[in-house]
Amino acid sequence: MTILQQNPPSLHVFAEAADDLPLAQAVAAQLGTGLLPSAPQEAEGGILVMVRDGRIQVRENRADAAPVSVTFHAGRNAHRQRFGGGINQHLCRAVGLNKSPGLHIIDANGGYARDAFVLAGFGARITLLEQSPLLCLMVKEALQDAAQDSQFAATAERITVINTDSVAYLQARTGTAADVIYLDPMFPERRKSAAVKKDMQLLHALAGPDTSGEALLQAALQKAARRVVVKRPVHAAPLSTQRLTGEVRATHTRYDIYAPLPAD
Ligand SMILES: C[S@@+](CC[C@H](N)C(=O)[O-])C[C@H]1O[C@@H](n2cnc3c(N)ncnc32)[C@H](O)[C@@H]1O
Questions:
Q1: CB 176, CB 223: distance < 8 Å
Q2: Of 66, 127, 137, 260, which residue is 20 to 30 A from 241 by alpha carbon distance?
Q3: Which pLDDT belongs to residue 192?
């Protein structure tokens, strides 16, 4: 797996118990790093990748950081799938899934794949692009677990995870790349530590500030067959001055909809 970010944080991989060593070794190899005998000193900073009971848990290397793992077949993601508002919820309407089932969607800001899992749950085929090798690993592991659960297996199987830079990926495609391209760029975090959820803190530590938003939108506009959708905080400015063809507003979130640019 290639490290794609400009300044990715250093990753410290270790196993909690002897039984976890084989998985920890595999994880370290996939992340292109060594396996440590134990957690490093906090002064070393970076990100701790702990293998515990056959699962990957990740946290920032400081005392007040809580571990984060990704799970689709239980907890918050499973709840959102069942009770999140069905195919007429804001996200599905924004991408047009309520009118056109079975869309192929590129999620070009994959993150924890929460949005991708919702869309796949309603029949979309998702190509998920994510620059962070560690996030890709966490999502792939969670998809493998979900694929063992008969209720979520079909959803999990509709998601393909690719560790890549989305701008480069889209620019390399000839012709259209998908029906819809969905962007959810990182928004600068204004609130400090305790107020911010642990998973968002980790995401900020792993991904850093968004630097490719505008370039990614331009690449997406050239490669989408039907529309490009950008998720924004509800009061934030649009990502571009390009004319919007629609928007879907939720309480805290707005989905800006752009028509693709005609091919040259
Ligand atoms: C706000 S998060 C997306 C959260 C996601 N929608 C979810 O439901 O979990 C933005 C993600 O985009 C990724 N990202 C930013 N620029 C990227 C790029 N050029 N190529 C690939 N991934 C990128 C970041 O690493 C980060 O994980």
A1: yes
A2: 127
A3: 52
Residue 206 alpha carbon to ligand 1 centre in Å: 10
> Quick one: which of 8, 9, 1 has its CA closest to 27?
1
Order of all β-strands in the sheet with 125-130: 159-163, 125-130, 104-107, 178-183, 224-233, 253-258, 246-249
Residue corresponding to tokens 């693709």: 260
Q: Tell me, yes or no, whether 148 lies in a domain.
A: yes
d(CA 211, CA 4): 13
Asked if 17 and 128 sit in the same domain, the reply is: no
Tell me the pLDDT band of 2, cut-offs 50, 70 and 90: very low
- Domain hosting 52: range is 11-60
What domain count does the chain have?
Answer: 2
pTM for the complete prediction?
0.93
For a pocket test of ligand 1, which of 47, 72, 109, 166 has the largest count of ligand atoms closer than 8 A to its C-beta? 109
47 and 147, same domain (yes or no) = no
Q: Is 165 in the pocket of ligand 1 (CB under 6 A)?
A: yes
Residues 164 and 249 in one domain: yes
The CA 135 to ligand 1 mean position distance, Å, reads 9
Calculate how far, in angstroms, residue 226's C-alpha sits from the geometric centre of ligand 1.
21
pLDDT at 235 over 50: yes
pLDDT digits (tens, 9 = 90+) for 170-227: 999 999 999 999 999 998 765 554 556 889 999 999 988 888 889 999 999 999 999 9
Query: Measuring from atom 4 of ligand 1, which residue has the nearest CA?
Result: 111
Q: What is the CATH number of the domain that holds 177?
A: 3.40.50.150
The alpha carbon of 17 and the centre of ligand 1 are apart by a number of angstroms equal to 32
Q: Is 167 in the pocket of ligand 1 (CB under 6 A)?
A: yes
